[in-house]
C-alpha cells in the first residue's frame, strides 16, 4: 500500500475545503424572504371563505411554477366581522400590532 505524500494529502484537504465552501454558499442562497400581506375578509360568509381559498391556491400554484423566487408572500388573515367598521378596525390592528399567526 502506498503512503500518500504531502502533496496528495494537501490536494485532498484543499478539495474538501472547496467542496464544503460551495455547499455552504448553496445553502445561504436558498433562504427565502417572507413578505407579510394583510387580507381582510368576512369569514362568516361563503364569499369570504372561498376568496381566501382562491388566494391561497393561486399563491401555491405561482410558487410551484416559480420555485426559484426567493420572496414568499405570507398571508395574514383578519375577519371583518360582517361590518365595514370591523374591516377598518381589523386593518388598523394589523398595522399597529406585531405579526402573530394566532390572531
From TrEMBL:
<keyword id="KW-0732">Signal</keyword>
<feature type="signal peptide">
    <location>
        <begin position="1"/>
        <end position="28"/>
    </location>
</feature>
<dbReference type="InterPro" id="IPR015683">
    <property type="entry name" value="Ionotropic_Glu_rcpt"/>
</dbReference>
<protein>
    <submittedName>
        <fullName>Uncharacterized protein</fullName>
    </submittedName>
</protein>
Amino acid at each position: 500500500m502506498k503512503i500518500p505524500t504531502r502533496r496528495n494529502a494537501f490536494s485532498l484537504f484543499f478539495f474538501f475545503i472547496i467542496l464544503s465552501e460551495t455547499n455552504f454558499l448553496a445553502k445561504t442562497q436558498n433562504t427565502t424572504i417572507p413578505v407579510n400581506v394583510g387580507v381582510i375578509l368576512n369569514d362568516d360568509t361563503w364569499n369570504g371563505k372561498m376568496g381566501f381559498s382562491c388566494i391561497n391556491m393561486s399563491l401555491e400554484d405561482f410558487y410551484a411554477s416559480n420555485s426559484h423566487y426567493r420572496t414568499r408572500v405570507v398571508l395574514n388573515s383578519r375577519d371583518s366581522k360582517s361590518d365595514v367598521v370591523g374591516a377598518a378596525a381589523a386593518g388598523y390592528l394589523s398595522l399597529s400590532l406585531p405579526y402573530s399567526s394566532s390572531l
